[in-house]
Design goal:
7% strand, alpha/beta, three-stranded mixed β-sheet
C-alpha cells in the first residue's frame, strides 16, 4: 500500500509500517473520546476526497463487484471473511461476462479491486465505531457513508457495524404495561380513538422515545376480555393489529396505491402515505409510526407494512426516478412515457397527440384522489403538443414528491430511535427487510428452522401440514404465521408438537397454538382433506387469544397505561397529540 500522505497533528508512527490500517489503528487507540471525535471529523474531511479519487467511487465496476460478493454471502449464508479469495475472483470473473462495467477486466485487475474494497471495509469497520452514535445528525460522516457504504462496503460488514451500533445505543426504560380494548376497534366507521392504533397513541404519544430503544419488547399488553398472559404473543398480536389498521382505510394515514387498486404492476398490496394528511395530528401519528419502525430495527419484530420502493428510497433520501413511480402507479408511468415518446410517430406525432390527449390539462390525481395543479393555474391550462415534455416532467415530479412531507415526519420519528448513521449504512431494500421482514415466504424457509417435539418430520400429520401450506395462498400462509406467532412475517422458529386426544376422535378437534412460544399442536388427522379444512379454517377465523386464564376475573376496561416506576419518563413535546 502507498504511504499515508496526510499525517494527523500529534500522530507518531511508533515504528509501525506506513499503511492506512496500521496508522489508523495506532492513532485512534491512543486518543481520548473528545479529541478522538474532533480528529476523526478532520481526518474524514481531508481523506474522503482522496479516497474517492483512489477508488473511482463513481465506477459501476466496484458496485458490481460488491454485488456479486454480497450474493455469494447470501446464498452460502457466510461472512465474506469465510470465502476464499480465489472463489470470489472466479465468481466475479464469471459475472463479468455479462456485465458491461466488469467486462474485459483481467485477473490481476479484479484482484486489485478486491484488495482495495477489502481495505475500505476494514477501515470503515475500524473508524465508524469511534463516532458518537447518539448524535441526531452527523452531517459529514453520514453523507460520506451514504455516498459510499451502501454500494462499496460488503453487506456482511455493514450488517455487523449496524448490529454493533444498535446494541451500544440500546437504553433501558421503565416497564410499560398497556391495556387495549380490541372490541372497541371492531366494526365499521369507528372513531379514531377506538382503533387499536388510536388507543395506543393516546397512551404513549407523550412518552419519551427511549421506549423503542431496546432489543426487547417495548411493552406488555393486556387485551380486555381475552385471557392472555403476555410472554410475547399478545405483544406481537398488538403490533400486527396496528399494522393491519395502517394498511387499510381505518386510519387517515395511508391509502392503497394505484397498482393495488388496479391489481397491476409491482407491489400490488402496497400503500403510500396520504398526501392530504398534513395536520399537526397527522404529523404526530406519522412520527409514532417512524418510532415503531425504529423499534422494529432494534428488536427484530417485523411490521406487517406493504410500502413501495419509492417510500423506502425517500426515507433514506436516495435518488429517485420514473422507475420508482412504477412501484406504485404503473399506469401513470405508461402515460408519462407516451407523452415523452410521441416523437416516435414522426410526422404523424401531432395528429396522434390530438386524437389521444385532446383536452388534457396540467393537472394530475395523486394516490389519495387529490387533484393538483402541475403548474400555476394548471386546471385552466391545456397541454399542447409543443408542451408534452414539460407536462411529462411536471407529472413525474409531482408523483415522485407527492408524500415527501409525510415521509419526513416518519423519518423524524425513526431518528428519535436509531442514529442517522445506521440509515446511511443501509440500502432501501435492506431497510425494508429489517423493518418489515418478507411479505411472503417459501415453506422450505419455515421448515428449515422448525423444531419437532414429541414427533418427527416423518410423522403423517407433519407431512400433511406442510403439504397444505405448500398449496395455500400467500395470504393463508401469512395467517398461519400469525396464528402460531402473533405476526405475519419471518423470522419464526416454529415448534411443532402433537395434539394428544386420548378419549376423542382427532378429526373432531382443531389445531392449537401458543403464540408466545411459536408453537402449534397438531391433531393426528386421518386424511389431508381434513387437515386442509381444519387448518385453513383455524388460521382464517381464530383472531382472539383466550386460553391462559379466565379473562373476566382479571381484565380492566381500556385503554389504560401502567408504568412500572415512580418516575415518569421525560416528555418529548414533538409527539404531544393536539386537542
Amino acid at each position: 500500500m502507498q504511504p499515508l500522505k496526510y499525517k494527523p497533528e500529534g500522530y507518531n508512527a511508533l515504528g509501525v509500517p506506513d499503511t492506512w490500517l496500521e496508522r489508523v489503528d495506532t492513532y485512534f487507540s491512543t486518543s481520548n473520546g473528545t479529541i478522538l471525535q474532533r480528529r476523526l471529523m478532520r481526518l474524514a474531511e481531508l481523506a474522503t476526497p482522496k479516497m474517492g479519487a483512489k477508488l473511482h467511487i463513481q465506477s459501476e465496476a466496484y458496485r458490481e463487484f460488491v454485488s456479486v460478493v454480497d450474493s455469494m454471502c447470501l446464498e452460502g449464508k457466510k461472512d465474506v471473511l469465510q470465502l476464499k479469495e480465489e472463489a470470489i475472483l472466479a465468481a466475479v470473473a464469471e459475472a463479468a461476462v455479462s456485465s458491461e462495467s466488469l467486462k474485459g477486466k483481467t485477473h490481476a485487475e479484479l484482484s486489485s479491486m478486491f484488495v482495495v474494497l477489502n481495505h475500505l471495509c476494514k477501515l470503515t469497520a475500524t473508524v465508524v465505531p469511534l463516532i458518537y452514535f447518539d448524535l441526531y445528525n452527523a452531517p459529514l460522516v453520514s453523507k460520506m457513508l451514504q455516498a459510499t457504504a451502501p454500494h462499496y462496503i460488503w453487506h456482511t460488514t455493514r450488517e455487523a457495524i449496524v448490529a454493533r451500533i444498535l446494541k451500544e445505543t440500546n437504553s433501558r426504560s421503565d416497564h410499560f404495561r398497556i391495556t387495549i380494548n380490541r372490541s372497541k376497534a371492531k366494526g365499521t366507521q369507528i372513531p379514531f380513538t377506538a382503533t387499536v392504533f388510536g388507543q395506543t397513541l393516546m397512551l404513549l404519544a407523550d412518552q419519551h422515545p427511549r421506549i423503542f430503544k431496546t432489543s426487547k419488547r417495548f411493552w406488555t399488553v393486556n387485551f380486555v376480555g381475552e385471557g392472555a398472559e403476555d410472554a410475547g404473543g399478545p405483544f406481537r398480536e398488538h403490533i400486527s393489529d396496528i399494522c393491519a389498521e395502517l394498511m387499510s382505510d381505518t386510519l387517515p394515514l395511508f391509502v392503497p396505491t394505484a397498482n393495488n387498486v388496479n391489481n397491476a404492476g409491482e407491489c400490488r398490496e402496497g400503500f403510500v402515505p396520504r398526501a392530504g394528511a398534513t395536520s399537526l395530528r397527522h404529523a404526530t401519528m406519522f412520527r409514532f409510526v417512524g418510532r415503531m419502525m425504529g423499534g422494529a430495527l432494534r428488536n427484530g419484530e417485523p411490521l406487517n407494512l406493504y410500502l413501495p420502493r419509492l417510500f423506502w428510497k425517500k426515507l433514506l433520501r436516495c435518488p429517485v426516478g420514473l422507475s420508482d413511480v412504477a412501484s406504485m402507479d404503473q399506469t401513470c408511468v405508461q402515460c408519462i412515457l407516451e407523452f415523452a415518446g410521441l416523437s416516435k410517430y414522426g410526422e404523424a406525432a401531432e395528429e396522434v397527440f390530438d386524437s389521444t390527449f385532446e383536452g388534457e390539462t396540467f393537472t394530475t390525481t395523486l394516490s389519495d384522489s387529490t387533484l393538483v395543479d402541475l403548474i400555476p393555474d394548471g386546471a385552466q391550462t391545456i397541454v399542447t403538443y409543443n408542451r408534452c415534455k414539460e407536462y411529462a416532467d411536471a407529472l413525474t415530479k409531482a408523483r415522485l414528491d407527492e408524500f415527501d412531507r409525510q415521509v419526513e415526519w416518519v423519518r423524524d420519528g425513526l431518528l428519535n430511535v436509531v442514529p442517522e448513521i445506521v440509515l446511511a449504512l443501509m440500502q432501501p431494500h435492506e431497510l425494508e427487510a429489517r423493518t418489515c421482514g418478507k411479505p411472503d415466504y417459501m415453506v422450505s424457509e419455515l421448515k428449515a428452522d422448525t423444531v419437532y417435539e414429541g414427533l418427527t418430520a416423518e410423522d403423517r400429520r407433519v407431512k400433511y401440514m406442510w403439504q397444505v401450506l405448500e398449496e395455500a395462498t400467500p395470504k393463508q400462509r401469512r395467517l398461519f404465521l400469525r396464528f402460531v406467532s402473533g405476526r405475519e412475517r419471518l423470522p419464526v422458529k416454529l415448534r411443532v408438537l402433537p395434539f394428544v386426544t386420548p378419549n376423542r376422535d382427532p378429526n373432531s378437534v382443531f389445531p392449537k397454538a401458543a403464540t408466545c412460544f411459536f408453537a402449534i399442536e397438531v391433531p393426528d388427522y386421518t386424511t389431508i382433506e381434513i387437515m386442509r379444512h381444519k387448518l385453513i379454517y383455524t388460521v382464517e377465523n381464530c383472531a382472539e387469544i383466550d386460553t391462559d386464564f379466565r379473562a373476566r376475573e382479571t381484565d380492566e376496561d381500556g385503554p389504560l397505561l401502567h408504568i412500572g416506576s415512580e418516575d415518569r419518563p421525560e416528555d418529548d413535546p414533538s409527539l404531544i397529540v393536539p386537542e
